[in-house]
């Protein structure tokens, strides 16, 4: 259902339905996309890196990255085009973070799961009632 909202780019009031920005900003984004797309479609520019595309078109790297994430630019056609990992900043071609950062996150999650399992076992041991055994010794007289 449409709702009244402020544009995140220009702060103008607009009816938010299918688009997340106002009509003026949407038109501006489309013009940026056309500029980037026309630049990298040229045969001599297909091997351009992200900084070269940014310098040639004047479109910010974050906006080009957004086009890639939206699926509007397919990196399979452009071998040198990559964007920064959100965690470490190294250049990647898919996803949000690089493989080494994924590995760090996985190991951190695994470590956390192991610690949580250890704590549960420890609490379970503490909650058990203590059992005492005595040895019966028969005295011979």
TrEMBL record:
Residues 116-126 have a biased composition (Basic and acidic residues). Residues 116-141 are annotated as: Disordered. This is Flagellar protein. InterPro entries: Flagellar_operon_YvyF (IPR022258).
